[in-house]
Amino acid sequence: MKLSHAITSSIGIVATALLLAGCSGGDSAAETSKAVMYTSNNETTVGVVTSAAAASDPSLKVEAVTGSSGPLLQRIKSEASAPAADVFYSAPATTFADFSEFAEPYRSPEADAIPADLLDAEDRWVPTNTHVVALMANTDQIDGGKAPTSWKDLTDPKWKGKVIVADPSQSSTALTALYGASKVLGENDFTKLVENLEVTENSSNVYPAVAQGEYAVAIAYESNIYPYVAGEQAGIEMVYPRTAPSLSTIRHLL
Fold first, then answer.
1. Least C-beta-crowded within 10 Å: which of 19, 90, 152, 190?
2. Which of 54 and 128 is assigned the larger pLDDT?
């Protein structure tokens, strides 16, 4: 039994996972007692996965190596002759397509619960969750303390240098969020948004930078923002940006 099979069976469906070809492993319990997971997810999410795996199979130890999805997938590519990871978790399926040659086909026992049109026809990865793009705002760093409420709001020049996002060439989170914003705003307004952004190569910098007051707003995923909100840090808000401009913006334009 491959390690990629063992870990996926133990975890169940929790996030999009790329099952890596060439993994070490065998059929004995000793040989399947450890699995290496490269992951772009936050500590809380990874903890849920490793805890679920341990509860399902106490003999299975999951070692997590964290980082942005782009560098981790490139690392998988560079390690192709001697794979060090068993599972990658997670990134959009469109991102995985460029690395499909490193995937080992495997159909999860949970796959029947997923709509067929969302599954990979060759079972190279398991699609399992939907991410919600949101804004993380530190109202203590915003004049008047009012967070932006729409994508259109963020095109205002007053936000220049105050909005942080990960490098979309390195982070699938940023790529997904900015792609969606471009579709909502159109080319002209999206260009205005981009002009206001500060880009960081390391996606893990995004959330602390807002929490610590270095930036006023971050473009990110709900799942990564929520721990800061749940921690009840003063001034931190999570905003689901409307696709239409706010009333105040409309009045300003008039």
1. 190
2. 54
Measure the CA–CA gap between 158 and 85, rounded to whole angstroms. Answer: 44
* Residue 200 backbone phi and psi in degrees, to 5: -115, 140
Question: In what side-by-side order are the strands of the sheet with 163-166?
Answer: 197-200, 163-166, 217-221, 133-138, 236-239
- Sign of the CA dihedral running 116, 48, 21, 97: positive
pLDDT (0 to 100) of residue 110: 84
Nearest of 163, 234, 173 to residue 204 by alpha carbon: 173
Average pLDDT, the chain: 83
Tell me if residue 29 falls in helix, strand or coil.
coil
> Does the fold of domain 133-253 match that of domain 3-126?
yes
List beta partners, residue 134. 220
**CATH classification of 133-253 is 3.40.190.10, yes or no?**
yes
Map residue 57 onto helix, strand or coil. Answer: coil
Looking at domain 3-126, its CATH class is alpha beta
Residues 143-176: tens digit of each pLDDT:
999 999 999 999 999 999 999 999 998 888 898 8
Q: For residue 5, which of 145, 83, 109 has the smallest C-alpha distance?
A: 109
Q: CB-based contacts of 62: which residues, under 8 Å, 6+ apart?
A: 7, 34, 35, 36, 37, 49, 50, 53, 54
Per-residue pLDDT at 106 exceeds 70: yes
pLDDT tens profile 129-144: 777 899 999 999 999 9
Cis bond leading into 40, ω under 30°?
no
The C-alpha atoms of residue 166 and residue 247 are separated, in whole angstroms, by: 29
The domain locations on the chain are: 3-126, 133-253
